[in-house]
Amino acid sequence: MNSLKKTGICFLFFFISGFFFLLPQLSFAQADAEKHYQKGMRLSQIKDWQDAAKEFQKAIDLDPQYALAHANLGVALSQTGKHKDALLAFDEALRQGYDHAFLRYNRGISFAQLNLLEEAAAELQLALEKDSRMTKARFDLGIVYILQGQLPEAREQVNRLYTRNEKLAKQLFDRIPPEYKVASIDNGGTLSGRITLTGPKPKARSFHLIHAPNIEFCSRISDGRGHRILHDFTVSDNGGLKDTVIAIRGVKKGKPIPQDIQVFNIDRCHSDKYVIGFRDGEDILVENTDPIRHEIATYEVEKNAYVKQKSNKAVVGKSSQVRSAFVGKDTDEFLIKCNLHPFLQTRGFLVDNPYYAISDSEGNFTIPDIPAGTYEVVAWHPFIPTQKGTVTITSGGVSEMSFVFNGEEERRKLYHDDIEGYRFQPWYDSFEKFYGGPRVDDPVEVLQKF
């Protein structure tokens, strides 16, 4: 019994229903230490860190072996800016055998606040080894990497965060200096060329308006028979393919990136841009000039063709919103569309510099002011395999590169595409509105052609 007393633990005997139970009881000092510890925890919950630190210290004075009190004292001290004292408290907790992901995380933060960045990174890595779900630790590890100038490692933390907490991933992404640098180009070169489509011209997609709300409004641009037509492949008489993004890869510095926000303009359930080039993390203004509501969703399309919805929010008539085009590392395509009116859509291709163009109605494109060098050039259309090539740009020179696509390689699903004989078509041939009353067509509108 004397040896047990030396440990600070005594035992009480209880008699219940004819049985004796031997139960441990804390010493008076340990019991008082526990009261101060619990009070410190309550103060921590309301962020009264100074008083919390005092209570944890009282618990330690009564029970110097109270490892949790040392650990939480370190947290309270770090929250009051006393990071050197906090590290001493964390060290004592570790010496007493207490080790936890959160202790390592808080220890790493204190190291970082003291500008001990190598030690901070090591502690945050330990925290993540103990608990890989600690998104805040991964975010702060990315910040430490930025401070150390280890930008590839910081970008890797963005990629790791993206699948668990996209909001934090975007915040970290925004803090990483871009790889592309602005520099003066005195005698840049030019790339010009043409995009053509050979073989069969893919059919347009048609969407019968019976499947969408606001039939009478949306029918103001139609084929006159109740369909909205979406021309994924717009081809000129001599084979020029419109709406292809031509992007130069690997340009590390050059002319400034345009600062004007790109606009997804909605006018009569129609977007004025079928394709755009977008930078990762770029904001896009959704501008609804229609008097009706649109349910605008954004999607990322990964390289394996997996589609993930990123946002879906109503945009009421005559209003606007901002959407972020922030995508994962395996993504280079972005889609904005209306889930109520699926023929309203714009598709984007990821670019990492301002040196890109979109082919015009004749398939022509020009990219000026390019720094001299040898680069990869990508030609992207949403529904046909991407093509690549290599070009050498000379100072003040004009280089040419063209791409030829084959219509037989189109990759898309045609749906709602039976233009003739459709079972709802008789409604549109009548002079009655779908909901009753005389049908009045707006003679000013130009109907889409199939």
Provide key terms for this protein.
450 residues, alpha/beta, Serine Threonine Protein Phosphatase 5, Tetratricopeptide repeat, Immunoglobulin-like, 5-stranded mixed β-sheet, 4-stranded mixed β-sheet, 22 strands, disordered N terminus
Q: Could you explain the architecture of this structure?
A:
The strands form 7 sheets. The protein has a 5-stranded mixed beta sheet with strand order 10-16-15-12-13, with no helix packed on it. It is 30% helix and 30% strand. The protein has 450 residues and is an alpha/beta fold. A hairpin with a 4-residue loop joins β12 and β13. It has 3 domains: 28-175, Tetratricopeptide repeat domain (Serine Threonine Protein Phosphatase 5, Tetratricopeptide repeat); 187-248 and 364-450, no CATH class; 258-352, Immunoglobulin-like, CATH 2.60.40.420.
